[in-house]
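Lab notebook, bench 4. We co-purified these components, and the gel suggests they stay together. Before we commit to crystallization screens, I want a quick structural picture of the whole thing.
Request: model the full complex, all chains together.
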Amino acid sequence: MIIHNKTWLNNLKLHEQFEDDHDAGCLTDKELKALKAKYFVGFESPGILMRTGLFVLTLVIVSFSVGLLSLFLSEARLIDNFVWPFILGVVNYIILEKWVKDNYHYGSGVDNALIVTTAGFLIGGFGWMMDTISPSQSHFIAISVFTFMLSAYLILRFADFLMSVLSCLSLLAFIFFTWQKLGGFGMATLPFVLMLASATIYVFSKRIAVHPKALYYGHCLRVIEIVSLLTLYFSGNYYVVNELSNDLNNTPGAPLPFGFIFWMITILLPLAYIAWGIKKKDIILLRIGLLLVAGAVITFRTYYHVMSVEVALSIGGAVLLAISYVVIKHLKTPKQGFTTAPLKRSNLLDHLNLESLVIGETFGSTGTAPTQPASRFGGGSAGGGGSSSGY
Amino acid sequence: MMTDHHIYEELHDQGLVSNDSYDKLKQRRLHPLVSVHWEIKTILYLGITLLTGGIGTLVYRNIDTIGHQVILSFIALLTAGCFIYCFKHKKPYSNARVDTPNAFFDYVLLLGTLSLLIFIGYVQYQYNVFGNNYGIATAIPMLALFYIAYDFDHIGVLNMAIANLGVCMGVTATPRHLLAAGTFNSQSIIFTYLGFGLLLLVAAWVTQKLIIKKHFKFSYEHYGIHASSVALLAGYFFNYESSQAYLWLLGAIVLSVALYFDSFKEKSFYFALLSVLYGYIAVSCLVFRILSFDTVGEGIITLGMMYMTISAVGVIFLLTSTNKKFKTA
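Here is the predicted assembly.
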């Protein structure tokens, strides 16, 4: 099913393992080199920067060449029905297959972009076709089913992580639109159904990840894990549920019935993620849990203003500092399999000095505080001079 | 992944993994470790951001109700506390990279630096110590920042210092602000940006040439390449009507080419990518300028689309070959 060379995929897995052990200091540089040479991998899979660049450039090429073709054909009135995007999608797919086979691209940015454009043309064409067949109805259910099947196929064929996101979301969209049709009962139970569906997807991806046939799809399954954990939380988040139910029921500003259930989910679920992540030593759960604590705090502050922003910021900051201090002290020698020491000796984030750039961005213009004249050069509402208005 | 230990047994038997490494690998499998290094760093960083942001606003809001001396002495105490800690634990200065003494050090320093800035800003606001001299009022924090960055070897503070140098010259430095502010509305500000950018590029060059804190080169070049390239392109559009425009464009192309070849020295793909990107924009501006002459008439859209398709293919080949050179060289 998968298009890529399976021996290389297996070797790539080994490379990851070797590099991981090398980073942990268990293999010497020389050994790593010898092992990598022994297990050859011929894929074109450049680093993240190159990948992003190639992704954008490929999108540029596809859009302008399609624009050019459409321009030529528009005179002959060949492009004004849904067959045109289907043709484009199929041609795109053929190019994609040939490109990946001939050039051994695996996550190079070019293949990622061509997969996205293929999916885009075909889904767009499908939506157009449904609209042509019966213009009066909405076709969300049919489109989400089509999207799900297409993206599932593209995952199996190319092991593409963007399609993993799409398949996850389209499946949930299908459930959303179908359940909504049930009327009042459907509306009331919608959040729980979506949460149940997300949890099922999560468990499914966790279970299937250990299956030998899923070996090549490890990164896709990890993406699905992340997406399903996020959708699980946001299906039960008070703000999301409240806004969505008011929006769908046309009752702006109305409070949510059984709101306390959603408040419990909003506050407790991130903590449950963290606890579970620590117990299972699952870094994905832990990270998502930490991220969602911020989500819970923001949700809470949207509805209740127990203290002013600056007091909340100061206290929150002090608490975070205290927590990290305690954790660092506690883990000075590794405990229960956790450590604060960096296991990877070098990675791209260090290489790009990402942290320092963030510091530059956030604190770059705090320095001169409120004294300076608004603008040194005058002119322009933003002013060339001083600190950014954002701060 | 961690359970795939049998492969190492095989490799060990074949002599590809030494006894020493094999024992280490065994140990690692017996006691697997999960690192929360990045999580802790992020939490520390967030904590400092929130705390200083909160305190800064608190002070600003309550400036009339709390006594100035109280606020001032609180901030001064915080600053002093942080710096006493840092001076106590600091390793001696060296032109090479100095590793941080412990996990907390960098963040204590950051907290101290930020509260120092709040302190200086507050003193200036309240007592106007630097008078109305904009230059001095911004130069002093900037100098302090550069000193802290070099003495304690903190790249984050260096980036703040560079941004403050920009403030001192009257421009914003970070790429986000560069693009968001849209302040390229006068010849003088464009020249200021260009001067700022070129100054940083010179600083990057000197850093590398004299081998003073070589790892700081990245920051100088990062801000330098953005500021100067954006200024040159802005100069082109600002002077679009006059023939001077071509000079700006030429400047942008020359700069990109120079930086492209410079990136080979450090094998920094990031800067190769940036220089190709800015060079590509400049060349495209030129091509579309030529296309927009009346000679081609209606065909401009077709030709423009053809140019975009073909040139994007060209850039892909350029980037791919650059990437290969970096890998093999």
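Chain A touches chain B through 97 residues (CB under 8 Å). Worth comparing against the SEC data before the next meeting. Residues 366-391 of chain A have pLDDT under 50 and may be disordered.
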